[in-house]
Amino acid sequence: DTAVSQTPKYLVTQMGNDKSIKCEQNLGHDTMYWYKQDSKKFLKIMFSYNNKELIINETVPNRFSPKSPDKAHLNLHINSLELGDSAVYFCASSQDGIGQNTEAFFGQGTRLTVV
Amino acid sequence: SQQGEEDPQALSIQEGENATMNCSYKTSINNLQWYRQNSGRGLVHLILIRSNEREKHSGRLRVTLDTSKKSSSLLITASRAADTASYFCATFEYGNKLVFGAGTILRVKS
Known about the structure:
CATH architecture of chain B: Sandwich
Number of domains of chain A: 1
CATH class of chain A: Mainly Beta
Mean pLDDT of chain B: 91
Number of domains of chain B: 1
Oligomer: heterodimer
Radius of gyration of chain A: 13 Å
Shape of chain B: globular
CATH topology of chain A: Immunoglobulin-like
Order of helices and strands of chain A: EEEEEEEEEEE
Shape of chain A: globular
Number of strands of chain A: 11
Low-confidence stretches of chain A: none
Largest interface: A-B, 28 and 27 residues
Strand content of chain B: over 45%
CATH architecture of chain A: Sandwich
Structural class of chain B: mainly beta
């Protein structure tokens, strides 16, 4: 069983389109994250949710909107896609991010290419 | 913000040699973690060292932590071709935010 699964794995789309990436974790974790990894492999946190509540919202364009229907799911919707949005997006989860000594589990990533 | 910074940025060694990667961070921490990322894959947790620990071992991995210098090192002994990957250190910032360093790309030649 995949602990953290995200779909799709690859996404190629045109500028201006709207797209969604889905993420699900079956670990029973309370905290979920979205990260963006650029071409230089730098990982930047975008959002963090704890028990369906948004707790971290980094300086991300408001074209990016996370949605957490329940604590096992954290989806990422992106409006009006731009070339600079091309990157690999990772979903992750941890038991409890609030000052806890816990590890994070990552999905396989979604490679988004905007053309 | 980028909490951890790794050096070197890239490291190329022969199979059987040891690989050492370093990480520096800026704020106080509860723990520091190391992750591995194989090409085209997600990150995998390797080891966690708490702020009151100075050294930790796991198989061929040895991690040290110096909180006075705000630095950590990851040593991989007797490296194998399968160790080829990117390695990242990470810390929790402001309790909830798991922040990663820029990573070290390790290449182990067979």
